[in-house]
Design brief:
2 domains, Gyrase A, domain 2, 14% helix, Elongation Factor Tu (Ef-tu), domain 3, 5 helices, mainly beta
Length: 300
């Protein structure tokens, strides 16, 4: 396993949109549905969370913001927002909680002070908010602004996810994996102490029994010519173990793929895989890697 340098710009566009939950019972309802503990959520920070169905399979990943005692925002990709509106509508109706999407523009800014500046997470005005995302970056949220990001502009945001070991779930990956299989248990995304939520029994049992047979992985393609689509499957020739590809991104050192599957590690060179593509099979070599990120001041 080797290090793979990732150059991240100082400003990154994102693909996040906003789902708004409002009502006296909004937080109580969501507390019983999502993987994070929302009881300690305040207006000064983001709370990462997943939303699962009853079998523990993830259909949304994003960040909660408390806008008011009875109003919560969930920043999430559009495909996830669509699933939320489809699957949570009956719950909201029963709890008399309203749910709708809100137009926002979310961008990530590098900051050396993000980890220790008490002003790092703040709400400047009602329509302009900044929150600490991690030790090196802030998330800047502008309300009622049309998102400016194009599909080709969010690759740096995907690289940040790869570096942070956060799964990139497209519409083809939703409702297929549990938090355990995405290597998010335990983490800030999943609380093991909060009590019941949708899918909690599956998640807790898998964690305590240690039976997650699939994990999140990151590999470098040893060829720049191979075209791999999200959702494709790679099969190791020697063992038959499979990896499903979540995302692909390009760096100055080559192509990275984020996968879910059996942990495949080797100190003896690349792993030899087979990619099933339409009616043909393509030989592909990949190498496990550890991403090392560096922020640089380039435009976004």
């Amino acid at each position: 396993m080797h290090n793979h340098e990732i150059i991240l710009p100082s400003v990154m566009a994102t693909n996040l949109t906003c789902v708004v939950f409002s009502g006296v019972k909004a937080r109580e309802l969501l507390q019983g549905l999502v993987t994070a503990d929302l009881r300690k959520l305040d207006q000064q920070r983001l709370q990462p969370s997943l939303i699962c169905q009853h079998q523990g399979r993830v259909f949304a990943l994003g960040y909660f913001i408390l806008r008011a005692p009875d109003i919560l925002w969930f920043l999430t990709p559009q495909a996830h927002a669509d699933k939320i509106q489809q699957l949570l509508a009956p719950h909201c109706q029963l709890a008399r909680v309203t749910m709708h999407t809100q137009r926002v523009d979310c961008r990530v800014h590098a900051s050396e002070k993000a980890d220790n500046d008490p002003e790092a997470s703040r709400q400047t005005v009602d329509t302009d908010m900044t929150f600490t995302l991690d030790a090196s970056y802030h998330l800047h949220v502008v309300l009622d602004a049309a998102p400016q990001a194009q599909v080709e502009e969010i690759e740096s945001w995907q690289l940040w996810h790869m570096h942070a070991q956060i799964p990139i779930l497209t519409d083809t990956s939703l409702l297929k994996f549990t938090p355990n299989q995405l290597s998010l248990v335990p983490s800030d995304w999943v609380s093991l102490q909060k009590g019941c939520y949708c899918g909690q029994e599956i998640v807790a049992r898998t964690h305590h029994l240690g039976k997650a047979k699939r994990v999140l992985g990151l590999y470098q393609l040893d060829s720049d010519d191979t075209q791999i689509e999200c959702g494709a499957t790679l099969t190791e020739r020697s063992s038959g173990q499979r990896l499903q590809i979540l995302a692909r991104a390009t760096t100055t050192q080559g192509h990275l793929i984020q996968t879910v599957g059996a942990p495949l590690h080797t100190d003896q060179g690349p792993l030899h895989m087979q990619l099933s593509c339409d009616s043909s099979v393509i030989d592909v070599a990949i190498s496990p890697c550890i991403p090392v990120a560096q922020a640089v001041s380039v435009g976004c």
